[in-house]
Amino acid sequence: MRSGILLYGPPAAGKDTVTAALAALDARYVPFRRLKVGSGKSTGYRMGTAAQLADLEASGDVIYRNERYGNVYVVDRPGLDRAFEGGAVPVVHLGQVTGVEQVAALSGVSWVRVLLWCSRASTSERSQRRGDTDTAARLAAWDATREDLASYPREGWEVQVDTDVTMPGRAARQVDAFVRRATPQP
User: For residue range 75-117, what is the model confidence (pLDDT) as tens digits?
Assistant: First the structure.
């Protein structure tokens, strides 16, 4: 069975940072690059077109899509299939509980659901520090994530990390330890 990690949390909670720390622990951990249709930051995404998105939707290959910051973000079946190649363990970043549920429902994959959390003040500070020009929108997304999280049971997360007090390396080790306990090793 294939294994993957779903990292959920508000903007600037540390999804990129924890993913990098996971990859430093074990090369099997690879960031899943969602398809992004729109503009703005392209690092960490596979930039696509509206026509590509329409083709994926027509073929039933969109596992989850959401719209935020004026863009469309997609977890797609062909992209995930490529991410699992060679025994890799993709790390999928999500900011909506619905996305976690839809991706976790994918058959043939053992997903570890990880809640990364930080305070609203940390989101603001981190967003400004990394040079985001849309910090207000990211704070609105933080508010939406907090509301969204209220609908999901706390026990639904295999790992929960407060990134205000947990360094990225330690968070990665916590996630890695759970993945190793939950999945058979070759």
Answer: 999 999 999 999 999 999 998 999 999 999 998 999 999 999 9
**What 8-state DSSP symbol labels residue 32?**
-
- DSSP alpha helices (H): ranges in 26-117? 50-58, 77-83, 97-104
CB 161 within 8 A of CB 114: yes
Q: What are phi and psi of 113, to 5 degrees?
A: -95, 125
Pairwise CA distance, residues 80 & 71, whole Å: 20
Extents of the domains making up the chain: 2-32+87-180
**How far, CA to CA in Å, does 176 sit from each of 20, 24, 26, 154?**
12, 11, 9, 20
All residues at 6 or more sequence positions from 84 whose CB lies less than 8 Å from its CB, including other chains:
2, 4, 90, 109
End-to-end CA distance of the chain: 11
| 7: three-class secondary structure by DSSP | strand
| DSSP output for 98-119 | HHHHHHHT-TTEEEEEEEEE--
pTM: 0.92
Class for domain 2-32+87-180, per CATH? alpha beta
